[in-house]
């Protein structure tokens, strides 16, 4: 059924039900039913034109005709699902309203809940329409005056959200198997949030909290209100604990004698996972080593251990292999093993070792840069190891806010280079190497590859990124609007994670009760902020000094060192100078003026990017051009001109027509960190903002995204940029699944199919034969 027909049918039924209940006397229930159907009629008639406008231009933002996916399409799909449910419910009411078995209170509560959702979806449609008329042609992300987008986001977060987590939870999902999953997640989240707030001495998120939320299951209105409360009040440490829930041991009572440690217990993540021969946690010592340059293997470059923020330290990685292969039980590899209990190596005897695989997968886990480890992702990684017949090395990078950018990038790059150099120890010949990651891990896969190209060392043969985050700047896009109804990725949570990764999480809430800090607390806080500002200022001055002092006289091309090509994407100082406490911010800022698109003929003369943070003030607008060609641009311009040209002058804030008022959050004004400092525009933090010369160094990229994911536009725009540069890229978008489906792969058929799609993409990169039929 097309949108207009659906709307007309809903309006007709609403008017019929209005007429019936208005004739039933002056009772309160009849009055409320009449009012709810009047509201449904009003909101449906107002929503249909806005959705029609979005749908008329949505195809212009697709990667190609075979991949019809972007945030505009997802928003229209979500609104259609709400309209379809209301149409079904209105038909039910019209058919059964005279029956003595008609549950008046139940149907009234459900209709009121979906009316609230429809009202909020109408607000989102107007916001999306405002983005469409304000953005530059062909761009999904807002770019412009950051004060305007900050006002827009602050207004957006005041919208009422509780209706999406009560009776309407999962209405946008077609596959009914996913709805109980979303309900379980939301119940566990609000129950854990309640436990967390009650504990004044520390984090208290336990597995038992997932099973003590019965009242939230039977009272959907309470669940929605509680969800709205916790996403406003809980900090990033709660989300860190909640997202680590799968690593909690099932048994917490000691089974040993008093005074003896309890035996190792299985975690939730490993109860139903594939059995593998090898699952060993390795600790890579912080020792520099040499890597050959791909341009000339006779020359090498030094790979220094990670130093940012916390100084040199070991990097933890987990080796997973279905078979015990040559090198995996060597004394040299055993010297790196870090004990974590008797389950790290299965002891089932086999006649002989399997030969080294020609392939190797280097995996980087997700978790918003603040949570999870390789153990959280171990269940599906074990399945991958079995299906691919290749060892997998998963990197346990340090997490924010304790270890902000660029610590995770440094550790992942160091571990990747170590794996390439020591692949024989890992049970692989290293003929084919794939980088794979999800969410934040997908972001790190791209940036590790960019850094490998900048250093001149071997880049992976391909990247498989599942629902990656490629734009960490606080901005709006059509898919980001869906965070209003996403139980895993509310916008405030996304912003808190980005702020933690950017190093701003330690800053105090601007509206917090400062009296609670006390005099010494205020002094301690202000001193910490002063020292941070001094450190950032000193870092910027030192990097500028190194750049100016490090300029060399012109030399003939014949005398140029062979390592010169690796200096073109990032500053030479960032790659060659030892990174100490003052040098850890060397990757935090790049001059945005240099990030505009360049013609292919100019890529060989790309100047070095300045590391001066002074050139990247928060008010500097982004100059990165996401246009893919003049033809697409002209088509988009013509389509946008059909919209009201006056809308461009009104600004983003004037999104709603006169007389329409969406529901606002009952919890009062929500504080959300909108971190707009230069660091979030760094292409090693937001790879979508990387210049062409950097993106052209990437290997083939395969992206698997989710249609209802707030991060969908990150995948679409990144794939469009690569496609516009002629880079090999594929994008597959799965329906109905939430962000993070890989961690839920064993729960239902749809998540297993999506996980199998990721394996298929990795198989393409590794040139492995398909699975037996």
TrEMBL record:
<dbReference type="GO" id="GO:0004771">
    <property type="term" value="F:sterol ester esterase activity"/>
</dbReference>
<keyword id="KW-0153">Cholesterol metabolism</keyword>
<dbReference type="GO" id="GO:0005901">
    <property type="term" value="C:caveola"/>
</dbReference>
<dbReference type="GO" id="GO:0005811">
    <property type="term" value="C:lipid droplet"/>
</dbReference>
<dbReference type="InterPro" id="IPR029058">
    <property type="entry name" value="AB_hydrolase_fold"/>
</dbReference>
<dbReference type="InterPro" id="IPR010468">
    <property type="entry name" value="HSL_N"/>
</dbReference>
<keyword id="KW-1003">Cell membrane</keyword>
<protein>
    <recommendedName>
        <fullName>Hormone-sensitive lipase</fullName>
        <ecNumber>3.1.1.23</ecNumber>
        <ecNumber>3.1.1.79</ecNumber>
    </recommendedName>
</protein>
<keyword id="KW-0443">Lipid metabolism</keyword>
<keyword id="KW-0442">Lipid degradation</keyword>
<dbReference type="GO" id="GO:0019433">
    <property type="term" value="P:triglyceride catabolic process"/>
</dbReference>
<dbReference type="InterPro" id="IPR013094">
    <property type="entry name" value="AB_hydrolase_3"/>
</dbReference>
<dbReference type="Pfam" id="PF06350">
    <property type="entry name" value="HSL_N"/>
</dbReference>
<keyword id="KW-0753">Steroid metabolism</keyword>
<comment type="pathway">
    <text>Glycerolipid metabolism; triacylglycerol degradation.</text>
</comment>
<comment type="similarity">
    <text>Belongs to the 'GDXG' lipolytic enzyme family.</text>
</comment>
<keyword id="KW-0597">Phosphoprotein</keyword>
<keyword id="KW-0551">Lipid droplet</keyword>
<keyword id="KW-0472">Membrane</keyword>
<comment type="subunit">
    <text>Monomer and homodimer. Interacts with CAVIN1 in the adipocyte cytoplasm. Interacts with PLIN5.</text>
</comment>
<feature type="region of interest" description="Disordered">
    <location>
        <begin position="598"/>
        <end position="617"/>
    </location>
</feature>
<feature type="domain" description="Alpha/beta hydrolase fold-3">
    <location>
        <begin position="674"/>
        <end position="742"/>
    </location>
</feature>
<dbReference type="GO" id="GO:0047372">
    <property type="term" value="F:monoacylglycerol lipase activity"/>
</dbReference>
<feature type="domain" description="Hormone-sensitive lipase N-terminal">
    <location>
        <begin position="7"/>
        <end position="329"/>
    </location>
</feature>
<comment type="function">
    <text>Lipase with broad substrate specificity, catalyzing the hydrolysis of triacylglycerols (TAGs), diacylglycerols (DAGs), monoacylglycerols (MAGs), cholesteryl esters and retinyl esters. Shows a preferential hydrolysis of DAGs over TAGs and MAGs. Preferentially hydrolyzes fatty acid (FA) esters at the sn-3 position of the glycerol backbone in DAGs and FA esters at the sn-1 and sn-2 positions of the glycerol backbone in TAGs.</text>
</comment>
<keyword id="KW-1207">Sterol metabolism</keyword>
<dbReference type="GO" id="GO:0008203">
    <property type="term" value="P:cholesterol metabolic process"/>
</dbReference>
<keyword id="KW-0963">Cytoplasm</keyword>
<feature type="compositionally biased region" description="Polar residues">
    <location>
        <begin position="598"/>
        <end position="613"/>
    </location>
</feature>
<comment type="pathway">
    <text>Lipid metabolism.</text>
</comment>
<feature type="active site">
    <location>
        <position position="439"/>
    </location>
</feature>
<dbReference type="InterPro" id="IPR002168">
    <property type="entry name" value="Lipase_GDXG_HIS_AS"/>
</dbReference>
<dbReference type="Pfam" id="PF07859">
    <property type="entry name" value="Abhydrolase_3"/>
</dbReference>
<dbReference type="GO" id="GO:0050253">
    <property type="term" value="F:retinyl-palmitate esterase activity"/>
</dbReference>
<dbReference type="GO" id="GO:0005829">
    <property type="term" value="C:cytosol"/>
</dbReference>
<dbReference type="GO" id="GO:0004806">
    <property type="term" value="F:triacylglycerol lipase activity"/>
</dbReference>
<dbReference type="InterPro" id="IPR033140">
    <property type="entry name" value="Lipase_GDXG_put_SER_AS"/>
</dbReference>
<keyword id="KW-0378">Hydrolase</keyword>
<dbReference type="GO" id="GO:0120516">
    <property type="term" value="F:diacylglycerol lipase activity"/>
</dbReference>
<feature type="domain" description="Alpha/beta hydrolase fold-3">
    <location>
        <begin position="361"/>
        <end position="510"/>
    </location>
</feature>
